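Homework help board

Subject: predicted structure for assignment chain

Our instructor gave us this sequence and asked us to write out the predicted structure in token form, then describe one feature. I got the tokens but I'm not sure how to describe them. Can anyone check?
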Amino acid sequence: MEKVYTAEVTATGGRRGHVMSSDGVIDMPLSLPEGLGGEKGKSNPEQLFAAGYAACFQSALLLVAGRQHIRLNPESTVKAHVDLLKSEDGKYALGVKLEVHLQGLDKEKADELVNEAHEVCPYSIGTRGNINVELEVV
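My token output:
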């Protein structure tokens, strides 16, 4: 495959540290999630992953809809729920639910577009077989 873009972000200090992108657009402190003893007002790796996945999946939806000459309602959304999971033996993993709202489309067509987007979205392709991803069309 041809490389078309490389994002560079440097993390220091882990979950209670700091992240900064090479272009300075991302420059923020991190914390554990507030419910796990983290500080209010700081992001965490799960939020950043959710933001990237939601945006990427929305773009995949726009792509597959465009291929079918369907114009998505601008109010359509993708909300990514990213769960930090812990097994009984103390290992951590992620789980994802993508909640997709496609206003103005019947359920069958919305399901079709979401399933097709899941086949072309780079995040979906990259997580397939590694992270359980649930698709919910609302």
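Reply (TA_rk): Your tokens look well-formed. For the description, you could write something like this. The chain has three helices and six strands. That's the kind of observation they're looking for.
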